[in-house]
Amino acid sequence: MTETKITKRMVLNALLAHATEIGNTMFEDFAKHELELLDKKIASGKKNAVNEENEKLKDTIVSILVASETPLRIREIQAKNEDLSIEKVSNQKMNALLTQLKNDNKIVRTEQKGVPYFSIA
Question: Is the whole-model pTM more than 0.70?
Answer without folding.
Answer: no
